[in-house]
Amino acid sequence: MDTAFSAAISIAFHGTAFAMVLYLVSVGLSVTMGLMGFVNLAHGVFAVAGGYFMTTLMMQGGVSFYAAVPLAMIAVAALAVPLERFLYRPLYGADELDQVLMTMGLVFMSVAIGKYFWGPTAEPFYPPAALSGQFDFGTRSFPAYRSFLIGAGAVLVTLLWLGLERTRFGAQIRAAVDNRRMAQSVGINTSGLFMLAFALGSALAALGGALGAEILAIDPGYALEHLVYFLIVVAVGGLGTIRGPFVAAMLLGISDTAFKYLLPEFGAFFIYALTMAVLLWKPRGLFGHA
Amino acid sequence: MTQDLDSRAVAFFVRRHRLRPVELVPWVLAVGAFFVFPDYLALGAQVLATILFGLSVDLVLGYAGIVTLGHAAFFGMGAYTAGYLAAHGMGAPVLGLIAAMAMAALVGCLSGLVILRAQGLSILMLTLVVCVMLQEAANKLTSITGGADGLQGMEVSPVLGLFHFDLYGKTAYCYALVVLFFGWAVARTLVHSPFGRSLTGIRENVARMHAIGTPVFFRLVTIYTISAAMAGAAGALIAETTQLVALNALSIDLSGLILVMVIFGGVGRLYGAFVGVPLYMIAQDRFSEIDPTYWYFWIGLLLVLVVMFARGGILGLCAALIRRFEQRRRR
Amino acid sequence: MTEPALETKSLCKNFGALAVAHNIEFSLAAGARHALIGPNGAGKTSFVNLVTGALEPSSGQIFLAGHDVTHLSQAHRVKRGLARTFQINQLFRGLTVLENVTLAISERHGVAGDFLRAAGRRRSIIEEAYALLERLGIGEEALRPVRELAYGRQRLVEIAVALGLDPKVLLLDEPAAGVPSGEAGTIIDVIERLGSEIAVLIIEHDMYLVFRLARRITVLVQGAILVEGPPQDIAADPRVREVYLGERVRR
């Protein structure tokens, strides 16, 4: 009985940590797909780029973890802006198949670029000393880094929600998701808004990629390997929402951890079955607009 | 005047389904390649089978507008069916082919009945999920599929009991070419038929199709099933000519790759796969020879450039060029 | 008197707490020229969607020529002679005008599911489509893609597609919406020339058009029928003035 209980605790803990990473990476994808109607299969590229920048800064630059993570976010946002301007923007409103082709091209290129600069193997990641080992929570102890991940994730999620609910920028984004033409006609600068939303989404992905380096290893194939999970989070959560992907990420993170722990021989079969059930029940995702 | 336009109207429709000389080019090239590149026939057979796979994707993607990231489910189902039969003493290729088509059609029909009411991102995810679930199942059912090791002990007998598969791939090439030709004939008939035109209508505006009394869901399931059978035939062709079936036949990587190849060629024009598949495979072959470690970069760059400068793939580019040329001539 | 071409009995539709249709008892006589008017958000288009089967009613029944079609699919209702146009064009923009109509006619003749014989070999269908376009005065544009046509011409194609179904009941959802006033006359002409075998229900905002075409008017307010009668009664009705014209003035 006690072992079952401790297994449940352990699944909930590791599942939540995984969910935080999935959410941070995917939330930007949900917003850009909902806002711009853009099928961006290359979103994982920004996450892996964040991971690469962070590890490089730490290993080669001797920068501390706490500085490397925000620097990586800024670098990725800076990279995202010209990409949005020159590659994505010409395809807004274009055939979604052209979007698929272009972003798949970017994914392929990212695989080669990752291999060229960082080699074919995964980047080693060593959390800072303060976050290594175990944290003691009274009767039980948990891996320190993952506890930090959950805490940091929870803080960021709260900030993000408050930001979108309370700020002008957030209100504009919500308006544009609901009705782009209306938003334009009341004077919202949608092209600037798209660029900002894209940069912010990419920076969040970079954050997810960097913080999650311990769970989803930073290697050249990252953007391709994990694409399905990111897409599941977005599709199950519902396009254009920020709460939806959170619920979906928690669902996916915890159930994936549970199934892999309890029924490892079935791989991800049940995760996919669950995804299918949700999408058949709610084709627009749990929180999607009708 | 009226009479004149009337007959022009009919002529326009008739012209569209009449065979144009340019449509024979792929077949001339394919037959020519048999004699010009005798050393590459084994590879050639794979290219032909992949074109058939691409053609099946174009039917659902380019005509019915179903964006699928899971067509390898049917390809793999066909490959495993043919492979399983060949490994159990039923290695007659045509029998394997027919059985593969039947099994793939069955899976296509059943999954289509479940998923084809969805739209947009949801349908893309559902096709993908069906594919990965099938792959996970195949991975688990090792007694039938051989699991991660792949199917063992395939013995394929001569085609129709007459033509042995040879080392140079001559038989494989001819066999694949004949099957592809049949597939093309079926697809071509289909897209020019009222049924095919109604699929285009569904792609263009599904609300209106409902309003003119089209049983939309039924049509979609029908084309999905036909397309699945065709993908199954392609899978069987690869299995029989390479005598190999492994789990990657059911992978979403393959689903994504065939999608990319068809979009690269140009969708909804029937010949997108004929252009996109060989060009993509040749480009990949060339790039990986020139730069074995980083060829991915170059193929990615190629895709990005194609989108930047040729919306609608290679055939879209050709159509745009022809239109511009005709406009200039008229002036 | 024969049975009404279209009839609804206590038709209701709720979206959560919002009732877009509330106990609608509506009857469209055979060969009628009937208009459904009402302020924005009165539920006019929802009513059309309920009748065609695009929306499922929460309760109530729908009859076409006396047959209960409440649980039939859209396709089956079309087979029973119900056709509609859309407030915002729903056409196959990449296809030619001729083909837009051909798709509808093929569907009516039940040959649209045929996958052996090429569409171009069905000469009679193409000729029928072309004759219909000629009748509406858009024969000249038969071979142009719809998206190249001016909006007013596209509205005519919208009607042509519906007429290709040879309807007994035709629902026109704001047929002249978005059309420059100079071109609206062509559309009115087309509607006026429709044969008496077709019962027409026009959903409209434009009062000029309504009073010109309709011999009977139903006023819908907040999902319920406020009043029904001949045009002169409706024009004189104080409640209608209040609801309808009041809204006009505010705008």
Explain the overall architecture:
Chain A has 290 residues and is an all-alpha fold. Chain A has helices at residues 2-36, 43-59, 65-88, 96-118, 144-166, 168-178, 180-185, 190-211, 222-225, 227-237, 243-262, 269-281; strands spanning 134-137, 140-143. A two-stranded antiparallel sheet of chain A has the order 1-2. The termini of chain A are far apart. In chain B, helix 3 (41-63) crosses helix 13 (272-290) and helix 12 (252-265) packs parallel to helix 15 (313-330). The two termini of chain B are 25 Å apart. Chain B has helices spanning 2-17, 25-36, 41-63, 72-87, 93-115, 120-140, 142-145, 170-192, 194-204, 206-211, 216-242, 252-265, 272-290, 295-309, 313-330. Chain C has 9 helices and 10 strands. In chain C, a hairpin with a 2-residue loop joins strand 9 and strand 10. In chain C, helix 3 packs across helix 4 and helix 3 runs parallel beside helix 5 (151-163).
SSE layout and pairing:
The complex is a heterotrimer of chains A (290), B (331) and C (251).
Chain A: H1 2-36, H2 43-59, H3 65-88, H4 96-118, E1 134-137, E2 140-143, H5 144-166, H6 168-178, H7 180-185, H8 190-211, H9 222-225, H10 227-237, H11 243-262, H12 269-281
Antiparallel strand pairs in A: 1-2
Chain B: H1 2-17, H2 25-36, H3 41-63, H4 72-87, H5 93-115, H6 120-140, H7 142-145, H8 170-192, H9 194-204, H10 206-211, H11 216-242, H12 252-265, H13 272-290, H14 295-309, H15 313-330
Chain C: E1 6-15, E2 18-28, E3 33-37, H1 44-52, E4 59-64, E5 67-68, H2 74-79, E6 82-84, H3 97-108, H4 123-135, H5 151-163, E7 169-173, H6 181-192, E8 199-203, H7 207-213, E9 216-221, E10 224-229, H8 231-236, H9 238-250
Parallel strand pairs in C: 3-8, 3-9, 6-7, 7-8
Antiparallel strand pairs in C: 1-2, 1-4, 4-5, 9-10
Helix pairs in contact in C: 3-4, 3-5
